[in-house]
């Protein structure tokens, strides 16, 4: 029996939803507006909502020529380099996590091994451990073995963020698949590898696509690891910080960088929204 809500209750609920939506959207709108303003307009108080938009901030971000005089002084950023770094590091982290995490999740879901739950929670513990607990000792190690400021080193250390998530999500997805399907394939003579490749993985496809999008976003927005373990290979999150150095505060240019930084995640979420929803709910109902 469906509960009937009064008109006043529906109005109140809609008002609450609209208020929450405005609270969430306002920072994004403010950043977009700031990216289209001049420095002087950003610093005025009270803030101005009516202004002549300019694309100079985006031009400053992607100026490949020699640094020239702008309304902000003489600066050169070349924001395409950190964007490329973030794409390479995030994609590399996703691929490595899938190659390692899915088999690990399958073993934890289907095999009876000693201390299975202890191992699973040990892996999950890395996801919630303080990042500095990992970064400080790795900083010295990476400099010693030559992995500091390299794509390989960054992809490796990003596994602290992405791998535990893939292991646990894939384990949950696999446990949601009836074991009878695998047993029937084995009775027909299919080898374990063939069962995984031709039966389990196709069934996991929706969940793995959603999980891949999720950990890509986690890697894309990570800040501490890139700050401590990279220089020329710094991701976009670290590159934006350089615009807030003491005495150099280009707020409109930084806002333009934030807008550009949000474009790739937004595109991925819009394109893979169906898979992302399926990935987050896959395995939730037993």
From TrEMBL:
Keywords: Cell membrane, Membrane, Transmembrane, Transmembrane helix, Transport. One of its GO terms (cellular component) is plasma membrane. It is a multi-pass membrane protein. One of its GO terms (biological process) is transmembrane transport. The chain crosses the membrane at residues 12-33, 87-109, 121-145, 151-169, 250-271. It is found in: Cell membrane. Pfam families: BPD_transp_1 (PF00528). Its main location: membrane. Residues 83-272 form the ABC transmembrane type-1 domain. PROSITE patterns: ABC_TM1 (PS50928). Belongs to the binding-protein-dependent transport system permease family. This is ABC transporter permease. It comes from Bradyrhizobium zhanjiangense.
């Amino acid at each position: 029996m469906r509960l009937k809500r009064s008109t006043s209750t529906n109005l109140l609920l809609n008002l609450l939803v609209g208020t929450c939506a405005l609270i969430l959207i306002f920072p994004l709108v403010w950043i977009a507006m700031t990216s289209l303003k001049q420095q002087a307009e950003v610093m005025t108080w009270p803030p101005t909502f009516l202004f002549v938009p300019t694309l100079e901030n985006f031009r400053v971000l992607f100026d490949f020529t020699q640094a020239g005089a702008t309304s902000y002084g003489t600066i050169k950023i070349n924001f395409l380099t950190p964007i490329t770094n973030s794409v390479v590091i995030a994609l590399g982290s996703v691929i490595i996590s899938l190659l390692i995490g899915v088999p690990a999740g399958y073993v934890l879901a289907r095999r009876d091994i000693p201390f299975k739950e202890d191992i699973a929670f040990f892996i999950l513990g890395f996801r919630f451990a303080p990042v500095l607990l990992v970064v400080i000792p790795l900083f010295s190690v990476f400099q010693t073995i030559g992995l500091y400021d390299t794509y390989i080193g960054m992809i490796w250390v990003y596994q602290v963020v992405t791998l535990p998530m893939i292991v646990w999500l894939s384990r949950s997805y696999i446990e949601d698949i009836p074991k009878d399907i695998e047993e029937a394939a084995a009775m027909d003579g299919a080898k374990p590898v063939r069962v995984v490749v031709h039966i389990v993985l196709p069934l996991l496809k929706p969940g793995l696509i959603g999980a891949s999008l999720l950990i890509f976003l986690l890697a894309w927005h990570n800040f501490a690891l890139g700050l401590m373990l990279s220089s020329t290979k710094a991701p976009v999150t670290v590159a934006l910080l350089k615009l807030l150095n003491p005495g150099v505060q280009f707020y409109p240019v930084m806002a333009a960088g934030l807008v550009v930084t949000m474009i790739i995640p937004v595109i991925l979420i819009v394109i893979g929204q169906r898979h992302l929803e399926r990935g987050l709910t896959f395995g939730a109902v037993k």
